[in-house]
Automatic annotation (TrEMBL):
Pfam family, one: SOUL
SUPFAM superfamilies cross-referenced by the UniProt entry: Probable bacterial effector-binding domain (SSF55136)
Protein name: SOUL heme-binding protein
UniProt record similarity statement: Belongs to the HEBP family.
Length: 224
């Protein structure tokens, strides 16, 4: 396990986090603009992962080589970024653009994991399924520039520029807490006259096994 993964486990984020422009600061939230990026994603049914909603994490971590030889065709190490993103609320959830440093070698090396990991519920109307994403470093401007996954479950897709309203919080990001944060953020946005354009996403800056007090999370709504 690399230094970056270890630091994320301990809650200290030493990897590159998403570059963005803060357009507005409201009561407990920010509205940010993120640039385009490339995402690696996997869609799965948590029931087939023994009920683990974060079951796609290992699949994507294997693609970038976070725990060993990367499962991509180069193979190439991609530097880890943060955070990991999970979306819910129905409809097609879109990830937030993130960046990360990149390490390239002719020998199999880990592709640095992007953080957040994005988990979207209901993408492409697949009831009960979850889509999790790692957003790749800015080195990869197009999907065809990124290392091709050898696991057919992993799909590369391009994510365009977008704006998100964001509220940050620590601790566990359970369904109840996330729903409360989302409800509060949406109410604040409506009060301030901002139009929400889709379901929220949950952005997590630490791997699933990080101790709750050390976690950083964000609930994000796409806005106009």
């Amino acid at each position: 396990m690399g230094l970056a993964m270890g630091k994320l486990m301990l809650g200290k984020i030493i990897v590159e986090t998403p570059k963005h422009e803060v357009l507005h600061t409201g009561d407990g939230y920010e509205i940010r603009k993120y640039p385009p990026c490339v995402a690696a994603e996997v869609t799965y049914d948590p029931k087939e992962m023994k009920g683990d909603r974060d079951g796609g994490f290992q699949v994507l971590a294997n693609y970038i080589g976070a725990f060993g030889k990367p499962q991509n065709t180069k193979p190439e190490a991609i530097a880890m970024t943060a955070p990991v993103i999970t979306s819910s609320g129905g409809g097609e959830a879109e990830p937030i653009a993130m960046t990360a440093p990149v390490i390239t070698s002719s020998e199999p090396e880990p592709v640095a994991m992007t953080v957040p990991v994005i988990t979207a519920e209901g993408r492409e109307e697949k009831a009960g399924k979850v889509t999790m994403q790692f957003l790749l470093p800015s080195k990869y401007a197009k999907a065809e520039e990124a290392p091709r996954p050898t696991d057919e479950r992993v799909v590369l897709r391009e994510v365009g520029e977008r704006k998100y309203a964001v509220v940050t919080f620590g601790g566990l990001a359970g369904d109840k807490v996330v729903a409360e944060k989302a409800e509060g953020l949406k109410a604040a946005l409506e009060k301030d006259g901002h139009a929400v354009t889709g379901p929220f996403v949950l952005s997590r800056y630490n791997p699933p096994w990080t101790l709750p007090p050390l976690r950083t999370n964000e609930v994000m709504f796409p806005v106009k």
